[in-house]
């Protein structure tokens, strides 16, 4: 048998296993977990408006999995403890303490909080779907074995680079395809009418802006920027072309190795989400924290530590103490 050589590996092997080191998986978990903790706090504040000691009441339209599980009424006092427990579980996950149980706790917390929110709104929001998919990949990986309190306590041996690379690459695939399939869905439902001036985008801008009606001064109460843009179908068409090209070509990001090019592309994606929030109240504004999966966060962490040391600030360690 001929001696094995890396060049003999298939393109699929090189695609999944040659991009990141084992420690990068732990660093991505750390920063993703911190971002997720903040994300959880931004997604469910409307649930805290309710009287937490108030009377239980039935949902008008329970979300589908609440319906399947027989959860047909709200328990007000359960919301705040669930939110706090989910937040704490995110921090446990980030710093690698009881990592896998923490992932399960986060998933249960998100399913419950999302279920309550969506059962009130009568709509199924999908912004948690990528979060759940990424957490599932972390659960299937060996992320608890590196850059974690679990690793320090149990003395895990370091993981191989390929064991750290494939989950990150799988996360990247899911994230870019989330955008690509969004484009396919738009084309399937509305065709090019979605992007044309005066088309579906304009309808959405007008509909969102008119939710709260007009004020005494004759202007819309909320989303005035979206209302103003709705009057400019030429600009809508231009922006629509940019969105079309972005969602069509975003899978190419999987083959870009230069982190600076990745940063520019993903900064554009972050601006896209922020603009959608300002124009249409599409609440994906904090979603870009998942983009940490596209960078070698171990190197980023060390760079940040160096910058903080120059300023006399103590930075978090890599947790393992290595």
Question: Can you tell me about this structure?
Answer:
With 322 residues, the protein is an all-alpha fold. The protein folds into two domains: 17-179 and 296-322, no CATH class; 195-285, no CATH class. 60% of the residues lie in helices and 1% in strands. The protein is built from 13 helices and two strands, in the order ααβαβαααααααααα. It has a two-stranded antiparallel sheet. The longest helix has 30 residues, at 161-190. The radius of gyration is 22 Å and the shape is globular. Residues 1-5 have low confidence and may be disordered.
Characteristics of this structure?
single chain, 322 residues, mainly alpha, two-stranded antiparallel sheet, 13 helices, globular, disordered N terminus
Compute the CA-based radius of gyration: 22 Å
Question: Share of helix among residues?
Answer: 55-70%
> Which structural class do the helices and strands define?
mainly alpha
Give the uncertain stretches in residue-range form: 1-5
- The number of E-state strands comes to 2
> Strand portion, in percent?
under 5%
The side-by-side strand order for the widest beta sheet comes to 1-2
> How would a textbook summarize the main sheet?
2 strands, antiparallel
Average pLDDT rating: 83
Q: Tell the overall outline.
A: globular
The domain count comes to 2
Our measurement of the CA-to-CA distance between the termini, rounded to an integer number of angstroms, reads 39 Å
* H and E string: HHEHEHHHHHHHHHH
Secondary structure tally, helices: 13
Quaternary organisation of the protein chains: single chain
């Amino acid at each position: 048998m001929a001696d094995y050589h890396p060049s003999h590996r298939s393109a699929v092997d090189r695609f999944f296993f040659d991009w990141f080191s084992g420690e990068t998986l732990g660093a991505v978990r750390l920063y993703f977990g911190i971002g997720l903790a903040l994300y959880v706090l931004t997604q469910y504040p409307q649930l805290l408006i309710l009287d937490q000691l108030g009377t239980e009441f039935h949902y008008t339209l329970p979300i589908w999995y609440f319906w399947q599980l027989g959860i047909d009424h709200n328990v007000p006092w359960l919301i705040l403890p669930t939110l706090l427990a989910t937040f704490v579980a995110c921090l446990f996950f980030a710093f690698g303490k009881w990592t896998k149980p923490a992932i399960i706790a986060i998933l249960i917390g998100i399913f419950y909080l999302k279920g309550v929110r969506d059962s009130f709104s009568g709509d199924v929001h999908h912004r948690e779907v990528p979060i759940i998919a990424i957490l599932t990949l972390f659960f299937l990986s060996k992320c608890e074995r590196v850059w974690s309190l679990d690793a320090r306590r149990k003395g895990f041996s370091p993981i191989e680079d390929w064991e750290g690379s494939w989950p990150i690459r799988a996360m990247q695939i899911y994230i870019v395809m989330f955008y690509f399939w969004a484009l396919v869905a738009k084309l399937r439902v509305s065709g090019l009418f979605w992007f044309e001036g005066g088309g579906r985008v304009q309808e959405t801008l007008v509909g969102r802006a008119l939710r709260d009606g007009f004020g005494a001064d004759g202007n819309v109460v909320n989303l005035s920027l979206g209302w103003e843009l709705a009057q400019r179908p030429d600009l809508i068409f231009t922006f629509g072309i940019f969105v079309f090209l972005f969602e069509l070509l975003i899978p190419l990001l999987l083959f870009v190795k230069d982190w600076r090019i990745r940063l520019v592309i993903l900064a554009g994606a972050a601006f896209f989400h922020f603009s959608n929030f300002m124009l249409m109240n599409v609440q994906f504004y904090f979603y870009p924290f998942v983009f940490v999966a596209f960078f070698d966060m171990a190197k980023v962490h060390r760079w940040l530590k160096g910058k903080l040391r120059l300023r006399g600030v103590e930075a978090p360690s890599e947790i393992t103490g290595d």
